[in-house]
Amino acid sequence: MSPVIRFFVDAMSGLPSIVAGLLVYTVWILRFGMGYSGFAASMALTVLMLPTVTRTAEEILRTVPDTLREAALALGAPQWRVVLRVVVPTASSGLMTAAILGVARAIGETAPVLLTAQYAAATNTNVFEGKQATLPMFVYQLIRQPNQTQIDRAWTGALTLLLMVLVLFVLARSIGERGRRKRGA
């Protein structure tokens, strides 16, 4: 990765989630007038996921042995084919792990989603238009209620979020382990 790209990825790693939401809100909603939507929220979450995915993918691609690349190049394969047929398949489990870690990072974010998709009490199936219901906002809305039943539902929502992230981390670990075993064999 070039030093300039690495610098920006490192800078984005420390980016507060609300700043990512403000960026998309300012550009997508205010400047282009596209309105609140799940798509705008996904753009903000993508900004948050990029550093995690990029750095993890970079580390994974470095683990691909140079001998594999050199062997493919020695056989006359062009560089692009070496990348597509040798490097990516060898690192595929790690790249999948990088994507899962990025999703796990974004799954519980509230601030960028609130700024870009607002909050709807009902489910909106059109991700390109209108406010969206999200689990973190559901938890926030319910925990503020005086009714114990609503507070219990909020805790259930929080537990659901926690379990979703846990499942993603376990999945990422198992995919990573499978890839390491495959590369080691």
From TrEMBL:
Membrane topology: Multi-pass membrane protein
Primary localization class, coarse: membrane
Cell location: Cell membrane
Annotated Gene3D superfamilies: MetI-like
Residue stretches making up the ABC transmembrane type-1 domain: 1-172
Parts of the chain that traverse the membrane: 7-28, 34-53, 82-107, 154-172
Key words, A-Z: Cell membrane, Membrane, Phosphate transport, Transmembrane, Transmembrane helix, Transport
InterPro entries named in the record: MetI-like, MetI-like_sf, Phosphate_PstA, Phosphate_transprt_permease
Gene Ontology biological-process entries: phosphate ion transmembrane transport
Keyword Nuclease set for record: no
Family statement: Belongs to the binding-protein-dependent transport system permease family. CysTW subfamily.
PANTHER family in alphabetical order: PHOSPHATE TRANSPORT SYSTEM PERMEASE PROTEIN PSTA
Protein's recorded name: Unannotated protein
Organism the protein comes from: freshwater metagenome
